[in-house]
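Hi R.,

Here's the input for the magnesium ion complex you asked about:
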Amino acid sequence: MNASHDVSSLKGIGKDLARKLYEMDIETIEDVLEHVPFRYDDFVTGSLTDAVHGDKVKFAGKVQSEAVVRYYGKGKNRLSFRLLVEERYSVTVTMFNRGFYKDQLKLGEDVTVSGKWDLHRMTISATELQFGAVEGELTPVYSLKGDMRMKTFRRVVELAFGEVSEPIEERIPDPIRATYRLMDRGAMLKTLHFPATRKELTLARRSFVYEECLYFQLKLQALRLGKRRGQGRALQLDETDIASFITALPFPLTGAQRRVAREILDDMKRPERMNRLLQGDVGSGKTIIAAIALFATVRAGKQGALMVPTEILAEQHASSLAPLLEQFGIRVGLLTSSVKGKARSLLLEALEQGELDILVGTHALIQDTVLFERLHLVITDEQHRFGVEQRKRLRNKAELADVLYMTATPIPRTLAISVFGDMDVSVIDEMPAGRKTIETYWAKPEQLERVFGFVEKELTAGHQAYVIAPLIEESETLDVQNAMELHAILAERFKEYGVGLMHGRLHASEKDEVMQAFKRNDVQILVSTTVVEVGVNVPNATMIVIYDAERFGLAQLHQLRGRVGRGDAQSYCILIADPSSETGKERIKTMTETNDGFKLAEKDLELRGAGNFFGTEQSGIPRFILTDPALDIQVMETARADAVRLLRSQAFFDNPEYVVLKRFIERENLLGGERIE
Ligand code: ADP
Ligand code: MG
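And here is the predicted structure with magnesium ion in place:
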């Protein structure tokens, strides 16, 4: 039988079972073979170095230290000792209520323990202990849906392997497979389902991960290098003119700003479309880079657009860019949903006539009624806040135009290759000189009165404060302070000051009103949910208090903290938190230790794992079957280089051994069929 046959053609698979398989999106025999286990249970590790953090494992080894028993509570105890595994690795074993083993655990004695593996602490929390070295078996564990049972699925896999007689088609061309000594596809799949040893499994996994990475990177690189990226138009840039604009800025650029400005300007001079991401921590000075790119565009005779996620930000940008650009005769317009009637039609007319050079606005910019005469550069700020759909529309609107995305959401370098593989990336990794770091403190809920005292001190000094609560309304299940209740409490506590309330359920006009009042300093304390998270710039605010801080991710805490520290005065961030988990504690502690968004992102990744890295949806990290984009970074990099090399070679398009890869690329409609120069 051929692997492309329907699963129902397997002997022993009836209608009912077939239906359950279809529900799991498994239709063909090949689909069964490709549904590989995500983990293996209850094994004696071939090599401890292959054990995965969090897995249930079984290690054999020799007792290396005398067992220690701690007693606590009502007759409870905890036994711990060190175990030497593979004659090399010293592992800690802990067990609850097995104090009675203490005297039996003689030094040098062979024992086998099974339990959960903590890679970071090199500890196994054992639930079982056997004397003697026990041989184990690798039992595959599959992810299942609906009514499918593990045992049943294992049987389906056995049936599938039993019936397939024809060889399984290779996905990796022979020359590449030979170079990296990868398994052939049939052996690889069989090993993943029925591994005999851990070593063999490692090899099979390596082959699988490479395959996943190569196909992923082929797609990305075809997008990045290929036709889709599309022809653009080269701009004639006047370098001396641009240099004089930079000299006219109120401050000298940092080295990093100079470098990224260069990268962007070089892109603009090329005939291909620019598709670049500019990453820079909160406050690193991205706006000025946007100004330089917009200036260069207008001086080359074109129009530019700057799109931001909120009206507040649009107004902020328009009012900071206009004075810089207008001294050079460049005309800047602002378009938000609040610009209505006559003003709106005049603005749109000027844009279409080409009397306006730059338009700053919210997503109102991408409406069909907004027409540019000669649009060439589109910049989005805080790009992670825009939906995929909005970004796509923007790109379509700006046919042939250069696109620059700016974001303060730091993606660790190890993940950037997966997330932004189809873009060129520039990074501002330096802060303007003289920035004061925001002092960050961790307060327990019972220290609230002291926190209020601190807030009062700042207010007395003429400054303002944000107070952040995670939810709008009371929730029975979550024990969190809510913004409304908090607002009431603070209004009572700080009677002599203005206390404002901001949350996502307010209308745009109400939000704007509250925000303006805070900007004008009519309101001194702004109680808010996370809606103030991005971009908001009120330099007189020097303090931010975040309630239930343990409920936020590191990335979000960092964005919130970035609301202060925008003026000359020393600023403070107070995290009110009572974390119950170790990672919660670690998160809060990390916040108090660093102001560096990239360091925080790395830490976040370490604490959460790539899968949960601040919401897969938002960060754009693709889902893989076995690849962990954070851990398999080397394979990913190799695959990326291979993909680029293949797409640029003539052999890829001519030689039969690449036909499978080429078919894949064609199916995805990514290339016109010729070599990429
Ligand atoms: P972000 O990268 O968060 O968008 P902004 O562009 O808003 O940061 O810049 C933050 C502040 O730093 C602004 O007030 C800006 O004028 C100032 N700034 C930017 N670049 C420099 C520089 N090279 N030297 C001094 N101040 C700068
Ligand atoms: Mg900004």
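One thing worth noting: The chain has four domains: 44-136, 172-226+637-677, 239-428, 439-594.

Cheers,
M.
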